[in-house]
Structures are given as structure tokens and as C-alpha cells.
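testing teh design pipeline on a random one, pls ignore if ur not involved
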């Protein structure tokens, strides 16, 4: 069954090519299609396009479908093109003429973009909670190992002393900025496109502000042409936020691969979290971090993929948009899997103590010794030359003492302040308003 079908059957090859992976990907949208329909029929009733009895019958039937979806008993039947068609087919089969009225005053164009926005809102909420859990783990590790030093590098050369407190905390604070960009994508997704129909509005007296309220949206996409133009843009902006989180995880994973290397040996993991070699008995490979790095680098390319598929399209709906789901949906799942695995690894990380006691790290303290001379009154450039000369003459000595007290340094990590920043970012996501509205629809 196809919503657009008249009397002419499509050539089978055309139908197969145009449907693509839409049927399987539409299963992700199933609960949100029902929620959108529940809001839509309440609006239709409010403007006189459905009677109270028709509304009650449709509400009951839609809620039954929603329960089947929750139980994972819901499928798209053979020959049914998409989720919208399947829901309408069930309603028409059950309620006859009343079921046919559910599509009044909307198009598949605004229906699918509504489903996408509802789905993406839900995925963003899950991602925020998952990132926050990982953030809290990093902060706790930063506090746990704040007194354990490790070498800091610039240009991959020994630079200055760092600490595991700084290292864990750096990636925690990076996630704060990543969630700021994710919040921008939330704001774009949290605008209601329903009522734009095919992209040019409707002669029906629809109440778009009512469906906005019923679905917990913060605002409308007011202009009906632009409502359709947000298809592709919404996905790209979210992809950019996913890419930011991915870049944080990929960089962190690269650090872990280096730090686990025997020439560094800064960290280790239980044997069951690493993999071995088929012929080298001594190997403990960081496969988890290598795969996180690989997945996340691929996700970092996603914004450009979406841009290239949608940037040069004119206004209005185009079938090209269908392909975006094939790229975006798996990327969201992959990123959540990467965060889950990074959490597992960091929950079990082992940090080596007294790394800097090794003689090869003594030059990490050249800046410390130079600063001590400056604090005693020697001009900076003279102190620099003296310490440089000591290094060249192999007469450099250090007591390995550090005195870093300013904000964000080894001795003053400011983790509480970083956590406050994260809490402030998360508070901007109005998840409660959204979830309360959707629960009200289902009651």
C-alpha cells in the first residue's frame, strides 16, 4: 500500500530503488510517528475536522499501536512502503472511514520531518545523559589521580610535567564544550514543522501552535517553506555536534594507545579488556581504543557527507533527503557504543605511579628551575640561557618539586568549576517539558 498510489503500478525496479533502506530505518521512527499522529488528531478535532467520537476511536487505536511498538511486536507488512503507510493501513483496517481521515491537513513531507525531529530529540537526550555519565567518570578519575604525574608533550617531544588529574580533567572539560554544540542541535530539532504540509501550507484551518504545545516543542518552524528546508539542515547540525564529541573521544583514544605502548607504559588495563596476537604471546593490544578512534574519525566526516548530499538543493522536498537516514542513524548508534566502551575502559584503567622518577624525564623540569631563578630576581632571558647551558653541559639538576597553584593547573584543577559548567549546559535542555508533554499524549 502506498499513500500516493492511484491506478498505475510502479515498475518493480523503480520501486525497489526508490524505497532503498527506508523500510528498515523507518522502524526507528515508528513510536514517533504515532506520537505525531496523536497530536495531529487532537488538533483536527479542535478545528472541527474530526468528531469527538472519531477522535476517541483514533486515540485508542493509536495507543494500541504504540504499545505494540514498545513490545517490539510491530512490523511493516509486505508491500507497505513506510511507517506512515503502515499506521494508516492499520487504522483504516480497524476503523474503516475514520482511519482514512488521519492524513487530513498534512503531507508525508511534514510527517516525516516531524518524525525525524521527534526521533532526534530523543536520541539527543540519550546522548546527553550518556556523555554526562562519562564526564562524571573522568572528573572522578581526575580527582583520584590528581597527585600522579606524567610527562607532558608538545610536538611529541618531552615538554613539562603534567598529571593524570590534568589529563582526565582536560577531556572532561572538552565534553562540556561538545555538549554546548549538541545543545544548538537540540534547539534546531526542537521546533515544530507540522502543518507545513508539502511545504506550502494548507487551506485547512490548522492550529500549528496547538500541535507545538502537545508535542512539547519549544517553538514553531513558522515559515512553511523553511520548515521543509530544515530537512538536511537539522541532520547536518546534529552531525556537527556528533563530530565534536567524536573528535574528543578519538584524541583521547590516541593518547591511550600511546600511553599503553611499552615504551611509555603510563597506563594499563586488565587482560580481559585488551586483545592478544595470534603469534606473539606477549601482546596486549588496545583494540577497543583503536576501534573507538576509527569509528569516531568516520563520524567526524559525517557533516561533510550530509552537506554534500543536501547543500546544493533548491527549496522544497527532494528524495535525496531519504539517504541522510542511512548515514545519520548508524552514526548515532556508533557514537553511543563508543562512549559505552570508553566508559568500560576508564572504569578499569590502571595508572602507573612515580613515572617521573625515571632519569630520562629530568629535563621536564627545566622550566620549573628557570622560573625559580626568575623568582629569585634573575631576568627571564638570563635564566633561560643558564638553564640551557646546564642542559648542554650535562650539569642540569632539579629537585622535581612543582608549585603550580593558579586556576586549572596541576595543583588547582578546578574540577568543581568544570562540573558546574557541565551542569549549567545540561540544564538548558528542557527534557522534562518534552517528556511531560509526550506522556500526556499517551494517557
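output:
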Amino acid at each position: 500500500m502506498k499513500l500516493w498510489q492511484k491506478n498505475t503500478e510502479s515498475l518493480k525496479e523503480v520501486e525497489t530503488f526508490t524505497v532503498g533502506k527506508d523500510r528498515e530505518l523507518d522502524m526507528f521512527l515508528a513510536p514517533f510517528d504515532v506520537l505525531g499522529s496523536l497530536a495531529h488528531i487532537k488538533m483536527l478535532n479542535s478545528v472541527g475536522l474530526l468528531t469527538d467520537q472519531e477522535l476517541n476511536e483514533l486515540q485508542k487505536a493509536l495507543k494500541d499501536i504504540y504499545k505494540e511498538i514498545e513490545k517490539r511486536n510491530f512490523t511493516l507488512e509486505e508491500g507497505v512502503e513506510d511507517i506512515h503507510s503502515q499506521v494508516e493501513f492499520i487504522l483504516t483496517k480497524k476503523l474503516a472511514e475514520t482511519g482514512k481521515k488521519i492524513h487530513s491537513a498534512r503531507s508525508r513531507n511534514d510527517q516525516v520531518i516531524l518524525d525525524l525531529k521527534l526521533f532526534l530529540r530523543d536520541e539527543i537526550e540519550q546522548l546527553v545523559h550518556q556523555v554526562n555519565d562519562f564526564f562524571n567518570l573522568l572528573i572522578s578519575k581526575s580527582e583520584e589521580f590528581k597527585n600522579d604525574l606524567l610527562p607532558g608533550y608538545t610536538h611529541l617531544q618531552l615538554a613539562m610535567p603534567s598529571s593524570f588529574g590534568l589529563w582526565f580533567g582536560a577531556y572532561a572539560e572538552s565534553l562540556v564544550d561538545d555538549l554546548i554544540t549538541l545543545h544548538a542541535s537540540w534547539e534546531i530539532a526542537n521546533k515544530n514543522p507540522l502543518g507545513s504540509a508539502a511545504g506550502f501550507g494548507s487551506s485547512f484551518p490548522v492550529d500549528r501552535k496547538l500541535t507545538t504545545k502537545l508535542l512539547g516543542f519549544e517553538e514553531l518552524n513558522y515559515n512553511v517553506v523553511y520548515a521543509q528546508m530544515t530537512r538536511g539542515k537539522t541532520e547536518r547540525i546534529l552531525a556537527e555536534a556528533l563530530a565534536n564529541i567524536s573528535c574528543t573521544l578519538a584524541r583521547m583514544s590516541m593518547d591511550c594507545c600511546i600511553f599503553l605502548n611499552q615504551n611509555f607504559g603510563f597506563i594499563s588495563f586488565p587482560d580481559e579488556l585488551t586483545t592478544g596476537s595470534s603469534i606473539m604471546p606477549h601482546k596486549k593490544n588496545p583494540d577497543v581504543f583503536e576501534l573507538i578512534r576509527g569509528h569516531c574519525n568516520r563520524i567526524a566526516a559525517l557533516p561533510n557527507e550530509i552537506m554534500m548530499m543536501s547543500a546544493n538543493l533548491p527549496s522544497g522536498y527532494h528524495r535525496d533527503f531519504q539517504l541522510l537516514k542511512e548515514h545519520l542513524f548508524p552514526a548515532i548508534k556508533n557514537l553511543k557504543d563508543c562512549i559505552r566502551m570508553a566508559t568500560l575502559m576508564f572504569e578499569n584503567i590502571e595508572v602507573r605511579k612515580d613515572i617521573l622518577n625515571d632519569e630520562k624525564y629530568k629535563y621536564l623540569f627545566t622550566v620549573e628551575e628557570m622560573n625559580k631563578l626568575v623568582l629569585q630576581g634573575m631576568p627571564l632571558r638570563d635564566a633561560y640561557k643558564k638553564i640551557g647551558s646546564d642542559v648542554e653541559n650535562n650539569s642540569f639538576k632539579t629537585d622535581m618539586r612543582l608549585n603550580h597553584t593558579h586556576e586549572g593547573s596541576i595543583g588547582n584543577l578546578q574540577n568543581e568549576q568544570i562540573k558546574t559548567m557541565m551542569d549549567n549546559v545540561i540544564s538548558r535542555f528542557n527534557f522534562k517539558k518534552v517528556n511531560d508533554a509526550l506522556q500526556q499524549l499517551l494517557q
